[in-house]
Amino acid sequence: MGGININDIGTLLGFGSGTDIIWNFALYVIFFLSLFSLFRMPDKNMVPTLLIGAVLALAVIAKISINSRYIGENPVLTNREFGMFVVNAGMVVFPFIAAGMVRAKKKGPVIGASVLTGIFALVYLLMFGIIEQRWFIG
After folding, report:
1. What CA–CA distance (Å, rounded) separates 97 from 110?
2. What's the domain count of the chain?
3. I want to staple 77 with a disulfide (CB 3.0 to 4.6 A). Which of 83, 98, 110, 111 is the partner?
4. In a domain, 1, yes or no
C-alpha cells in the first residue's frame, strides 16, 4: 500500500474498460446533475442541500469502488456487496426526498434537476443490479 500518485488519480477518474465504461458514464451524469442541483438550491434549505451533497459523496464512493482495481488496490465496496446496493439506493432516494423538501418561490430548476438525477440514478441502480449484482440470476 504505497502512496497514491497523479497517474492513479487519473485512472480512478477515468472511464475504465468493459462494462465499467457504462457505470462510470452514468455516475458522471448523476454527479453533474447533483452538482447542478446543489448550485441552484435556494437559501435556507439545509436538509435538501445536505441530501444532494450526500448524493455527490455516494457517486464518488461508487466511482472509486468501481475503478480501484485498475490501480491494484482493494475497492471500498465490491460490486456484489450489499453496501454497494445501499450506495446505489441512496443515490436514487435522496434526490427525490430533496426535491420534495425544497421551500422556495422559484424552485423549478432545482426540482427538475433533482428529479432527473433520481431518474438517472434509478436507471443506473436497475442496470447495475441486473448486470453486475445479478439480481435475477441466482
Report:
1. 12
2. 1
3. 83
4. no
The torsion of the CA quartet 87, 58, 23, 98, rounded to 10 degrees, works out to 90
Domain containing 116: what range? 22-131
DSSP states along the chain = -----HHHHHHHHS--STTHHHHHHHHHHHHHHHHHHHHHPPSS-HHHHHHHHHHHHHHHHHHHHHHGGGGT---SS-TTSHHHHHHHHHHHHHHHHHHHH---SS-HHHHHHHHHHHHHHHHHHHHHHHHTS-TT--
Residue 32 maps to a domain: yes
CA 10, CA 89: separation in Å to the nearest integer? Answer: 27
Domain CATH code at residue 64: 1.20.120
Residue 58 covered by a domain? yes
Say if 138 falls within a structural domain: no
Supply 93's cell numbers: 432516494
